[in-house]
Amino acid sequence: MSPNNSDTPHVRFRVRAQSDLDEAQRSLALLTNWRAGSTAAAIVMAILLPFAIAWRVSYLVAIAASIILAATRRRLQSARTRRALAAGLRRTASPIQPSRRFDPCPVLADRAAAMAGQLLELANALEQTRTPDPAIVALIRELLTDGTSPLYNPNLPATDLQTTLTRARAGITALPTA
């Protein structure tokens, strides 16, 4: 051992201090890397968040639209709706047109009289079909309730009424009746 014992521990302490300093620098660099990584991840998540929200909202909108569509389809295919539309078709085909409170405007009697047979056939077919095509039911409803339909609008040619009734009849008879 050296006569001066203070030099030896001091040298060891310097070596040890240097290794501790290197370790501290590595730890600080690692901490800086972790902070930078977590900051980058937070930025990416913040950028992707609106897309996730939009996806969720669009998903919920699609579910709501499906539920509404199913409810509308069920309502259009209900027996009550079919009976009401058939009654409206029969009333339109009647030679005496009693006015009703919710009629959009007076029916063109000459057109209704010319198509009375087809209106009655369509009414019978509509009542006998259990699950009619909702598009055809909506077409019949529009024909009866829309003031611009060929049943009410004298500016439209009479052939439009014939075409609409033929289309509705073909849609109803194409379905199996039960």
Q: Please, could you describe this protein's structure?
A:
The chain is rod-shaped and about 110 Å long. The chain has a domain at 77-173. By secondary structure, it is mainly α. It starts with 6 loop residues before the first helix and ends in a 5-residue tail after the last helix. The model has no long low-confidence stretch (mean pLDDT 83). The protein is built from 6 helices and no strands.
The number of helical segments is 6
Helical residue percent? over 70%
Question: Main β-sheet, in a few words?
Answer: none
Structural class designation = mainly alpha
Strand content: under 5%
Low-confidence stretches are none
Give the strand tally: 0
Shape estimate = rod-shaped
> What's the rounded overall pLDDT mean?
83
Terminal-residue CA separation: 113 Å
Following the backbone from N to C, one meets helices and strands in this order, namely: HHHHHH
Radius of gyration: 40 Å
